[in-house]
Amino acid sequence: MAVTLTGQEGGLWNVATRGSTHRFDLDAMTVTRIPGESSSPTVNDRPRPLLEIVHCTVGARGYWLMSPDPDEVDYLEHYWHLSSTIQSIDPAPSD
Question: ∠10-15-18 over CA atoms, to 5°?
Answer without folding.
Answer: 170
